[in-house]
Structures are given as structure tokens and as C-alpha cells.
Amino acid sequence: MSENSMLIYHGIHEFQSACLSGDILLHSSAVTLGKFDGVHRGHQKLLSEVLRRQQEGLTGIMFAIDSGGQQILTEQERASYVASLGMDVLIECPFSKELMTMQAEAFIGRVLKEILHAAVLVVGSDFRFGYGRAGSAQMLLDRQKQYGYRAVIETKECYQGREISSTRIRSALKAGDMDLTEALLGRPYPVSGRVVHGRHLGSTIGFPTVNILPSARKLLPPDGVYATVTELQDGRCVPGVTNIGTNPTISDGNDRTVETYLLDFSEDLYGTDLQTRFYHRIRGEEVFSSLEELTAQMKEDAGKGLHFLSRRGVLPKT
Ligand SMILES: Cc1cc2nc3c(=O)[nH]c(=O)nc-3n(C[C@H](O)[C@H](O)[C@H](O)COP(=O)(O)O)c2cc1C
Ligand SMILES: Nc1ncnc2c1ncn2[C@@H]1O[C@H](COP(=O)(O)OP(=O)(O)O)[C@@H](O)[C@H]1O
What we know:
Blueprint: E1 7-10, H1 12-20, E2 29-34, H2 41-55, E3 59-66, H3 75-85, E4 89-94, H4 97-101, H5 104-115, E5 118-124, E6 128-129, E7 135-136, H6 137-142, H7 144-147, E8 150-154, E9 158-159, E10 162-163, H8 166-174, H9 178-185, E11 189-196, E12 210-212, E13 224-231, E14 237-245, E15 257-262, E16 273-283, H10 291-312
Parallel strand pairs: 1-4, 2-3, 2-5, 3-4, 5-8
Antiparallel strand pairs: 6-7, 9-10, 11-12, 11-16, 12-15, 13-14, 13-16, 14-15
Bound molecules: flavin mononucleotide (FMN) and adenosine-5'-diphosphate (ADP).
Flavin mononucleotide binds at residues 198-202, 207, 209, 211, 225, 241, 243, 247-250, 259, 261, 285-286, 294, 298, 301.
């Protein structure tokens, strides 16, 4: 299967139906299991192992369990990233009652063997599964012979002497530390969405902005101004400065928007899909006493953003 032809299923039963109906021809698979929020550098280690087995002829499956709550990456962001790596199949599995109450042994026998046809299982050393979290990486090793698969247990990837985890990324994000977030993720933090109409005030003050309404579950860094690069729908990458917040200077609303002023750019982007990547926090969101003061500050932000992006060497080539 080529890049971007990844098949996505929602839940085990949808996957099983696709196998039964012949939508997917499954012989043997290499499966990685986990929550995979963020698909950070630790997760990427597991994915590389699956992709290596895929090269050897197994069907690569990422089995991602969603237990709800805020997300570092939305399903869509995660799916498009994992597809870009070349994974064959993504199963997005809600942490349903069925899964919650299934004994670890039954999960191996029914889900991993009967439904997924796992020949290789790839998990992190602290992976737990089954009712009461009774199943462990060690259990997967112990059952290899009985069920006829090979278990590959990966150690935790570290950064600056500490383990990389979704929890560590959440706290870096919460602190607005985009540089650390990027180091842990292995790529800059993305926010994706469709460009919607705002108040149309931006263009009248010389700073038009593309406005995105992020999904309610998407974790955002704190309100403020960031140096960013935005990938447009046609693949072009444009440097800019992005404000996250409620625009207190001109609005008393509570709607949180992600709005980007693209440097040296003047095209209409309404209705298109964008991905904005966050490199560095410049300042917090402030209330200004006039539009002139806000505009003067935005001009300074644009200069700082450009300076930061060029120093980091991430300015797209023109
Ligand atoms: C770089 C940048 C910095 C901004 N900083 C602030 C700010 O500190 N306080 C604020 O109230 N709004 C801020 N904004 C949001 C502006 O109020 C908003 O972009 C402008 O009013 C246009 O809104 P519109 O897109 O709805 O037309 C900022 C916007 C950008 C692009
Ligand atoms: N340099 C630019 N940066 C961002 N958007 C731009 C730029 N140039 C043109 N645009 C277009 O202008 C629109 C933003 O204008 P604006 O007056 O801020 O309206 P809105 O309030 O709907 O965001 C964007 O959706 C985009 O289509």
C-alpha cells in the first residue's frame, strides 16, 4: 500500500466486518497498541518497528485506544500524520465497555489473534491491557508460544535524561514551551482546521488573519502570540504570527480562536484547510486601549516572529 492509502476503522467490529466482507485482505499482521496521543518520539519508535515488518510483508496495524479527554492531536491530525509515515491500517478504538471489561487473556485470544491475526506485537515496556489493567508487556512475552506471535517490547525513548510521555508534552504545552514540545514530539506542535469568517476587522487594520476554530478536545498552548509556519491546502508553507485567545481588545466573547497573520501574503483562503505549526511563544494576549496600540504591537510581533523563524532556520524557501 502506498502513502496516504491508509485504511481507517472505528472500533474492532468495523475492522472485523471489513475483513469478513473482503474490503481488507488480512493474512498476518504486525500490530502496535496504545493510546498514541501525540504520536511523539517514543510512539514513533514503535511505529518504525511495525513499518519495518510491513516491508517484510505483514500488514501494519496501529491500534489506538481512545479513553476520552483532551487530545494533543485530534483524530484527523493523528491519522494524517500516521498515513504520511506509510502505515497500512489505523484502528481508532473507543475505550468501550466491551474493551474495559475484557479479560487480558481474552484480549490476546479474541482481539489480537482471531481478529487482528497478529504475528508480531510491538508495545512499550509499561503497556497494560485487559480488565483491571491485568495484562502487561511481560504477559505478552509469556504467551508468545501459546498464541504463535512474536512480542517486541520497546524501552522508553528519553529526552534530556527523562522519559518522553504524553503527560510531559501536555505540561510543556500548558507552560507554552513550544521548543520543548517540539523536541518531545519530534516535530512542531500542529493545529489544523478550516478557515472560517471572523469579524473582517483584520484586513481593515492591515493585518488580515486566517481564523481556525479548533475542536473542543484539542489541547492548546496558553493564550498568546506565537511564531508559526502554516501549511496551506496546496502544500505551500508560509511563515506568520498566530494569536490564540478571545481577542479581548475588540471582543467580549469567550470564543477561543487560532488566528494567523501570514507574512507577505495576500490570497483568499476562506474555506480551505490549513495546518499551523507552532515554534515559539512571543508573548501573552493583552488588552489594548486602542486599535492603534494593538496594530503597533502586531507589527512588532510580526518582526519578532520573522526573526525567530529565520534564526531557527525554518523559513520556507521561496
Ligand atoms: C500577531 C497577533 C497578535 C494579536 N494580539 C492580540 C492581543 O494581544 N490582544 C487582542 O485583544 N487581540 C490580539 N490579536 C487579535 C486581533 O484582535 C484580531 O486579529 C483582529 O482584531 C482581527 O480580528 P478578525 O480576524 O476577527 O477580523 C492579535 C492578532 C494577531 C494576528
Ligand atoms: N496575509 C494574510 N494573512 C492571513 N489572511 C490573509 C492574508 N491575506 C489575505 N488573507 C485572507 O483574508 C482573510 C482574513 O481577513 P480578515 O479581515 O482578518 O477577516 P476574518 O475576520 O474573516 O479573518 C483570510 O481568511 C484570508 O482569506
